[in-house]
Amino acid sequence: MTAQAPQIIADLFALSSCTAIVTGGTGGLGLTMTIALAEAGANITSIEVPGDPVSSVLREKVESLGRAYSKYECDVKDSAQLRAVFKKVWEDAEGGKAETPLPNILLNCAGINRRGPAESLSDEEIDEVFAVNQKALFVCCQEFAKGLLSRSLPGKLINIASTAGFIGPTTISAYAATKGAVIQMTRAFSTEWAGKGIQVNCICPGYFWTEMTKQYAEDPQYKDFNDYILSRCPTGRWGMPDDLRGAVIFLASRASQYVSGQAVVVDGGLLAK
Fold first, then answer.
1. Fewest CB within 10 A of the end CB: N or C in the chain?
2. Domain spans in the chain, listed from the N-terminal domain onward
3. Of these residues, 72, 175, 207, 216, which one is catalytic?
């Protein structure tokens, strides 16, 4: 075994030769992480729901950084449609039809939640949460890995799970079940693909302030819940989207070449308490 020469630290975290496929990149946390990848040098290939109102915001920010941007519209709940989009992403990049080069990073941010007592969730709510958070993510991982393996390319695969995948929170049982599955899928995929040059990891955010959750932090009617979060988290605050920037750059870059199958928890110490 020959020791590799050490790299300059800044180069370890640089993504200037990379292209990232991103699902859910226009969401509260997804938008921040996608822009972070672009700031580190990555081109962005965004898979979005048709007519996403934040699409132009993401494009403008990525292109303002001097990065290439390609968009593909898709309902991720439709597996056949999702597989077709991935096939087109690979074909367009390889044939020079896309703004972005061949991808070597996948960031799976697409996810939804449906709240309610476990005994009250409808079939429609259960099916939708599982379709987006679990099945779609599985298909994305499959199609990304197939594209890399068939071309003998290395890559970085980053899933977004949650601390809800470790604990048993109330009123979000379907969400928690799918996020636990994401953690286990990450480990299983890593076992199969790490030896082939594909590192597979996931990020597990704790309680984060976004447009979807800010009501729980700001609305007086949720004061008890907000007080619980602040007392439960040793840092004494909600996470902010920027708190995820470092984790996603680490897992997308050469700095994590020997890291695979891991659930990187970003929760202000919540699980440790």
1. N
2. 10-208+241-272
3. 175
Our answer to whether residue 258 is catalytic in this structure is no
Residue bearing tokens 């987006």: 132
74: number of Cβ within 10 Å: 20
Give bridge partners of residue 263 from the DSSP assignment.
Answer: 202
Nearest Cα to Cα of residue 103 among 45, 59, 160: 45
Fold for the domain defined by 10-208+241-272: Rossmann fold (3.40.50)
Contacts 24+ apart (CB under 8 A), 126-130: 126/174, 128/77, 129/174, 129/175, 129/178, 130/174, 130/177, 130/178
Helices (H) and strands (E) in the chain, counts: 10, 7
Token pair of 104 as six digits: 């070597």
Q: Is the pTM of this model over 0.90?
A: yes
Which tens digit of pLDDT belongs to each residue from 86-101? 999 999 999 988 888 9
Q: For the segment 54-86, what is each residue's pLDDT rounded down to a tens digit?
A: 999 999 999 999 999 999 999 999 999 999 999
3-state secondary structure 167-185: CCCCCCHHHHHHHHHHHHH
Distance CA 273, CA 20 (A): 35
CB atoms within 10 A of CB 96: 8
How far is 165 from 167, CA to CA, in rounded Å? 6
